[in-house]
Write a structure and sequence with these properties.
This protein is of the alpha/beta class. It has 2 domains: 146 residues, HUPs (Rossmann fold, 3-Layer(aba) Sandwich), CATH 3.40.50; 124 residues, 3-Layer(aba) Sandwich (Rossmann fold). Helices cover 35% and strands 22% of the residues. The protein has 9 helices and 10 strands. The longest helix has 28 residues. It is elongated.
Length: 289
């Protein structure tokens, strides 16, 4: 899956500025078109005009004005990007945010969805609660989760962290990581947290013959690291902070079941608590680059 098109769901909050900033960096490297999209959940359910004391015609006119105002606001963001030399389009739809975002990504063949998070237990504004989490499990596209409170300028991707278990599924993110590293001239840190210690030969089984199976790795600075810990998410985050990585890339089964590398639902801790962007790929996707 190529990054010809980037999808940025916007809610006009502080998160939007961070999402757009990252989209600009990626678009500059991959020559991507930026799609700004707003899902308006307020108008998703049919409500009778009488409920608000309006005549039907006046009520419909009000809804049309609201949607027009939202469309103009999103188009204003797109126009700003165009003035900066980026290719950008805008769109607005009414409905459940995670469903509409996923549908739009499919319909327009966007290669990556960028969402902003406030970290820990809740997401920002229109993505409050479970919307982003549902999107992560539903979308048939990679999702980049960006912690809006820890953004450091200038935006760089010098070091990419790829946590892996010993399964072939988790390795499906490797080609994408290599592609990103080539574009950004990054180094890749492949990390395995060994929870079994002396009961397995992780050194031998972790990403064996990597450069033979992934020839493009010869063109990228990379390193394999094995750490011992029973607390996988905590160890991944600790390592990410200590090594000052710029991005984490991980795989997911979707539909609520995440890669063994991150022990099921504990993978959410990476997304919620990471101070750097986390790119999550569902393993059934045909191509992750």
């Amino acid at each position: 899956m190529k990054l010809d098109k980037l999808l940025v769901p916007v809610d006009f909050s502080d998160a939007t500025g961070v999402q757009v900033s990252y989209a600009k960096v990626l678009a500059g490297q991959f020559n991507s078109e930026i799609h700004l999209f707003h899902a308006n959940e307020a108008l998703m359910a049919p409500v009778s005009a009488e409920s608000f004391g309006f005549e039907q015609m006046a009520y419909q006119s009000l809804l049309d004005q609201i949607e027009k105002g939202l469309a103009e606001k999103v188009e204003g963001l797109a126009e700003t990007l165009r003035r900066e030399g980026f290719r950008a389009v805008s769109s607005v739809a009414s409905g459940r945010a995670h469903l509409k975002i996923s549908e739009y990504a499919e319909d327009t063949n966007c290669g990556l969805i960028l969402v902003g998070t406030t970290g820990h237990t809740r997401f920002h504004n229109f993505m409050l609660g479970s919307t982003t989490e549902r999107l992560l499990r539903l979308a048939n596209r990679p999702v980049m989760s960006i912690h809006t409170g820890s953004m450091i300028l200038p935006l760089t991707l010098k070091t990419i962290l790829v946590p892996l278990d010993l399964s072939s599924d988790s390795e499906k993110v490797v080609p994408a990581a290599i592609t990103w590293a080539q574009h950004f001239k990054s180094r890749i840190l492949f990390l395995h947290v060994d929870v079994l210690g002396e009961y397995m030969n992780a050194e031998k089984e972790f990403l064996p013959d990597a450069t033979d199976r992934y020839p493009e790795l010869h063109r990228v600075a990379h390193e394999k690291i094995i750490l011992d810990s029973e607390k996988i998410p905590e160890e991944i985050l600790r390592f990410a902070i200590s090594e000052k990585v710029d991005c984490i890339m991980q795989t997911s089964h979707g539909a609520g079941k995440l890669s063994k590398a991150l022990l099921g639902s504990k993978a959410d801790e990476i997304i919620h608590k990471s101070p750097v962007p986390v790119v999550t790929y569902r393993i059934h996707q045909q191509s992750l680059t």
